[in-house]
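so my prof wants the structure for this chain in the tokens format not the other one, which i didnt know existed until like an hour ago. anyway here's the sequence
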Amino acid sequence: MIAKLPRWVWSGAWALAFVAGMINVVGFLGFEHQAVTHLTGTTSMLSDAASGGHWTIFGKLLAVVGAFLAGAIASGFLIQDSTLKLGRRYGVALALESLLLCFAVPLLVRQSHWGVCLASAACGLQNAMATTYSGSTVRTTHLSGMFTDLGIFVGHLLRRMPVDWRRLKLCTVIISGFFCGGIGGAAAFRKLGYAALFFPAAFTGTGALGYSVFWLRRRKAC
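here's what i got, hopefully its the right format
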């Protein structure tokens, strides 16, 4: 069972899922139609490219996977913990994600594959940054685990078994955030093209600033 979650966890999870939804839909609608917030499909495509001997495609897909991994490594280096806890360097991680997205835009406008890699690195950074809270897995850039948990809870309800309602709420919060982000990202991409990524960049940049101010005020209050 998840212990009582503070408000910043709920709002932060929704906001980060919203950001991921925006980034991923831009990746899908872009020139390479590439998912960047998770690696399941990318790894399958990587296997297919290796099997068919399509080494140019293999190299591009491997770069996306490597970029996501590099982002996760950067998060591990900065935050140094797998459990959400106020006082860690989340502000720095959010600022770095914002910069990666900003630098990705001009590269994507020129249809450079490196833009896709920078967006993937930003998502790897974000997903590793928000990992666990109170023993519960919190992933904000992909939904397979959320929908799996949702299905388990419904199955438990049908059997009249105990259900972790906070975990269920967390799943719906992340799913709704990702979905709404996808809607916003698709609408922005149709009007602005790759500049739509400036919106999640602004969100994460503002989040970095807001978190830093919040943490400084909290420290002074203590």
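also thought this was worth mentioning. The CA atoms of residues 190 and 201 lie 18 Å apart.
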